[in-house]
Amino acid sequence: MLSAYKHRQPPFIQMIPLLLWILISSLHQHESVAESSLVSKIHHASTKQQNGVHESQHEKVVSVTGDGIIQSPDFPNTYPRNTVIVWRLVAVTESSRIQLTFDPRFGLEDAENSICKYDYVEVEEPVGGIVLGRWCGSEMVPGPQVSKGNQILIRFVSDEYFPSDPGFCIHYSLLQQRQSEPEAPAVMPAWMQGVDALSEAVAGFSTMEEVMKYLEPDRWQVDMEDLYKPTWQVVGKSFFHQKKSRGVVDLNLLREEVRLYSCTPRNFSVSLREELKRTDAIFWPSCLLVKRCGGNCACCSHNCYDCQCSPTKVAKKYHEVLMLKHRAGGRGLQKTLTDVPLEHHEECSCVCKNDSD
């Protein structure tokens, strides 16, 4: 009877098992394809993240036998994103020096807080890794650079945002040194020296008159008069830290002296180029005194194992200095008296590190 009943079933009822099998197979196949696609996307993303800008990073060695150019990709049009290129310029002889001159057409992504963080070109001395300068933006064309040895590095970096135009173009040439005159670089005009070399030379003078004579031997007195002519620039300020006077010594005073002088604002000398993060300028004096917290905190607290002398009141103060910069796209140095802001610690206190955490 059962066999007969099965034979009497309608055709679509008999096909139900077959349809179910096809549907289940299709679902499994769709899940497999989706999973494969997801894995493929994840693998692609991780590869891109792993490589990043390093995908296009490479170094090009350029043998310098005469004049030539180094330029950003697609110059004078917009350069590509996510790019790191290093050119190593090598002169043919050990006694040769390489001079770099920037084309007046210069434009990269702007700096942030006067610091070139994103897109920039920098020049570096291979020996010691000294960065002669890092530049970005379009307001100022970098001045000429001269290598200390027979090699020099040019590094171009761009991130994934805001590429600019025209980029940069650097003309390089050879400066031959005479073997009998090893001190020839010292005779080089001041404006032709790199920022680091000029900063080192200027730092060795004791008076502004000596600085101006070194920069312009023939007209230094005229430059001195020009510096002090009334201009629109704000007049500089001087700041002093006044210590309070104390009365007759007693036990309370002894305890107070420990608090006051164990952790106090003290004179620290700071390099202006490092403090201001200005690799494009030279300052004289090159260092200034600022008040920064210093001392020890031995009597901070018996429950604290790491007590630090930290500022509790900070002020920004301005100091007038002489600033030197290479003129954009031309010869000579721009000399101005300018005010530079420096951070001063006015009050200090011993703070337990655990409390600050």
From TrEMBL:
Coiled coil residues, start to end: none
BP GO terms, sorted: platelet-derived growth factor receptor signaling pathway; positive regulation of cell division; positive regulation of cell migration; positive regulation of cell population proliferation; positive regulation of ERK1 and ERK2 cascade; positive regulation of phosphatidylinositol 3-kinase/protein kinase B signal transduction
SUPFAM superfamilies cross-referenced by the UniProt entry: Cystine-knot cytokines, Spermadhesin, CUB domain
CDD domains: CUB (cd00041), PDGF (cd00135)
Top-level taxon of the source organism: Eukaryota
GO function terms (MF aspect): growth factor activity; platelet-derived growth factor receptor binding
Signal peptide: 1-34
Subcellular location(s) per record: Secreted
InterPro entries reported in the protein's UniProt record: CUB_dom, Cystine-knot_cytokine, PDGF/VEGF_dom, Sperma_CUB_dom_sf
Domain Platelet-derived growth factor (PDGF) family profile: residue ranges: 263-355
Keyword field: Cleavage on pair of basic residues, Developmental protein, Disulfide bond, Glycoprotein, Growth factor, Mitogen, Secreted, Signal
Gene Ontology cellular component terms for the protein in this record: extracellular space; membrane
Domain CUB: 58-175
Main location: secreted
Family: Belongs to the PDGF/VEGF growth factor family.
Protein name: Platelet-derived growth factor C
